[in-house]
Amino acid sequence: MPATNSPSKFPTEDLLEINDIQGNSLAGFNKDFQMLLFLKIHDRSIAKAWIRNIIPRIATVAEVLMFNNLFRALRNRQGADPQGLSATWINIAFTYAGIQKLVPAKDAEGFDPSDPFRLGMPTRSALIGDPIDPTAIGHPDRWVVGGTDASKYPDLVLIIASDDPAHLNAEVTRIKSSITAPASSQGATDGLEIIFEQPGATRPDLPGHEHFGFKDGISQPGVRGRISKTAKDFFSARFIDPNAPAAARFAKPGQPLIWPGQFVLGYKMQRNDDPIRPQRPLKLSPSWTKNGSFLVLRRLLQDVPAFWNFMEQTAAKLSQQPGFATITPEILAAKFVGRWKSGAPLMRTPIADRPDLAKDSLANNHFAYGADTQKLPLIPIDGYPGDNFPPADSTTFGSGCPFAAHIRKVNPRDLGTDVGSASDTLTRLILRRGIPFGSPLVDPLQPTAVELAEERGLLFISYQTSIENQFEFVAQDWANSELNPPIGGGHDPIIGQNQEQGNDRTRIFDLMGTDGSIETIEIPIDWVIPTGGGYFFSPSISALNTVFGG
Ligand code: N7H
User: Fold this and answer.
1) Residues 184 and 84 occupy one common structural domain
2) Tell me: the pLDDT tens digits for 27-43?
3) How many A from CA of 232 to the centre of ligand 1?
4) Which domain holds residue 345?
5) Is residue 494 located within the same domain as residue 541?
């Protein structure tokens, strides 16, 4: 008899309070046009009154989820993005400095004094590998926002996001006037100051791709939990036949189901020794943090010409060597990322890009590193022919997807790591909500002076319930390490930062040739450079009402 998993045998999943959780965390705004407004609070009671006024405009998970589901359903039926369907969302999050200004001291002190959130990003910057030379642009002394300069350190950030640039502008104008309007008008305040404005936008030339040219936002954890009292009304849609054992672990092929307490406080957590059974929620401290989430924001500058020049020069040199004759700049860059530009994973198509695989959301994330891709029985989907792409072949070791490729470093999937089994890795996952900033280069190898004068990069945003065990751990213990997580192979060539030799930040990356020989590539410069950011807390709607606004 094949093993069956009747849904009743699955552990009962939490009922998520989707009307109380801010929408960008679990649901993801997924908007092409965004604005981050960083604010400083000068007057507590004025700031509280302003917060009370903005609460009805803060988007919840329930609202964002409903919109995203409608958008997806229409796109699937019509074969294109639905015209005219548009929404504009706002979320809010506070640094510890902001919380101290707004909530009674006894409440603020509930955050652990050694928690990175309480210490702040500039204090943790060296630990996560940022430059320690104060003259380097990546040093927090030089950050444009959120660094060591107190005048540029925010108390709160607003994330405003829309499908329509005109709607975004109108909302931003409304918010700005609520901040700068004369003190007599309703909701008005001069007790708040906008200290930095950061627009973000999807690349118009390559929607969904970041500035090096690669498709982003493909791999996200599935979130366990229900959105109504109905037993199978799951937050993350399930695509695998419930009779298949894999249905207990995955929402979609390759998308693991993670207990919601990893992303939002107050819910069951993932165990580091079991991919299915949960452990109890984190203790809430302060008590009002239920349904809240920690938000990591990094303004990461991308030196796109440096990246692609390096690929050109290194590929030209390498191709002279036995075992590397076929290497091109495009192939080398894909090896650094672990996916091709289209988003197709190297594990499933190691020799050449396959945009058709990249487009298939039931196949493009269906791979692991230690086991071959198995065909999974799916629930019937109208018109879907099934995943008929070549399976990932785990016997390729590092010759298909290098051990230190970005996506393999930050999520080693089914492989054991320096700190535990594959179950432990599930406790490290984060929800990523990044968006590019700045305009794309027409030709990265021949940028114009005007293009070079403008900054571009990624506004990295992630949600998690432990900044230390999730974001910081992944960045510091894995991406920045020459050896971890599992087997060595060098630093993460995209986001890794090597601080071990002070100002010499050279990283290394092992590349395997077709003959099994290994070339160790030296990367003397960083092409992803932190220039701002912060550790924030994104409270529940009820905490905004009672603790922040009240
Ligand atoms: Fe990364 N890139 O373009 O190379 N990232 N990332 N990232 N990243 C991913 O699978 C990129 C950054 C993660 O589950 C893809 O969705 C760039 C930070 C994680 O298989 C691409 C920057 C951190 C994943 C990029 C950047 C992470 C991931 C493939 C900075 C956390 C999922 C698309 C400028 C510390 C891995 C996808 C998985 C995927 C790129 C930053 C983490 C193309 C350019 C700071 C967990």
Assistant:
1) yes
2) 999 999 999 999 999 99
3) 31
4) 298-533
5) no
